[in-house]
Amino acid sequence: MSFQVTVQPSGHQFQCEADETILNAAIRAGVGLPYGCKNGACSSCKGKLLEGSVTHGAHQDKTLSAADEARGWSLFCVAKPHSDVVIEAREVAGAGDFPVRKMPARIAKLEKVADDVIVMSLQLPASDRLQYLAGQYIEFMLRDGQRRSYSLANAPFKDELMTLHIRHMPGGLFTDAVFSTMKERDILRFEGPMGTFFLREDSAKPMILLASGTGFAPLKAIIEQAAHNKSERRMILYWGGRRPQDLYMDALCREWAETLPNFRYVPVISNASAEDGWQGRSGFVHRAVVEDHPDLSGYQVYACGAPIVVESAQRDFVAQCNLPETEFFADAFTSTADLLG
Questions:
Q1: What's the CA gap between 33 and 43, in Å, rounded?
Q2: Bridge partner residues of 4 (DSSP)
Q3: Among 162, 201, 230, 251, which is least packed by CB within 10 angstroms?
Q4: Could you give the CA distance from residue 54 to residue 78 in angstroms, rounded to a whole number?
Q5: CA separation (Å) from 177 to 84, 189, 334?
Q6: What is this structure's pTM?
Q7: Which region, left, alpha or beta, applies to residue 97 given φ > 0 means left and ψ of -120 to 50 means alpha?
């Protein structure tokens, strides 16, 4: 049995199977509902249920509390309909531009760039390419039915190989294999592109790019794409880590700062030791942005990394720095991949 979903205010309609989430049905139909984790751990897909009824699957209470649900809010990534429904959601232009595909890929290279970070390069079948927007991610489909999500770290125009930045989560089903048994020429299967975190090319506003750890990966793709487009927008990358070695592509960022006319790089370290000899900015990375930019009313912000960093940035940038809520774009690492490896 299927039900009709109507999105307001756009009026877009699509069919959703009874055992399917509203978000998955929207992705299948090419309707650009905003989303991030797809598993109830972030609130990117939260919207209003105006008519009809749904059942919500497992999710974190902070993303949708019982009180929220009673007030008509819904989390579309875990919501399955019991009837035709009408929802209210802000659609993301461009999110449905490219079809979501299931594809095989061969591991072309595994490069260890830090003690706990590997850059995985994937080769797609001959004469085939994945179309995506800079900032989006893919989901690996594992043999037991589980999935692991990773952002594409290369811009779409540099698609000879797809690159991913994978941090080791000790005990993790996927990352333990990446750091031990996986080897070049192994075949993996994935589905993508996913996500509504991508470069908005229809804006001329300067950009603050905020990363923690491997949250740098999609921002790298965004920077490369903007540079390729010869964008004149100002870009400032704030990349935070606990120790200097966490900024595993620091040299590349410094090279960009020297060669890209509108790009600036601010590395921030929160827990340097004496042996590091760190002379740069210290503290929480999002607070460095607040210190440097007390007025963000004319900016766009792209933030990616640990949930606490993304959530703190959104809260403080909007409340303290006048950033419009609609100009904060985020991809918090709250998926199963990041919780379980």
A1: 12
A2: 15
A3: 230
A4: 9
A5: 43, 15, 20
A6: 0.82
A7: alpha
Task: Kindly state the tokens that stand for 308.
Answer: 């606490």
* Contact predicate 186/178, CB 8 Å: no
The one-character DSSP state at 39 is S
Distance CA 83, CA 54 (A): 8
54-56 and 162-167 strand pairing: unpaired
Mean pLDDT of 81-96: 85
Q: Report the DSSP pairing between strands 79-81 and 54-56.
A: antiparallel
**What pLDDT does residue 159 have?**
78
pLDDT at 339 exceeding the cut of 50: no
- Residue 240 CB contacts under 8 Å (≥ 6 apart), including other chains: 210, 211, 212, 213, 267, 268, 269, 270, 284, 285, 286, 288, 305, 309
What is the tens place of the pLDDT at every residue in 198-236? 999 889 999 999 999 999 999 999 999 999 999 999 999
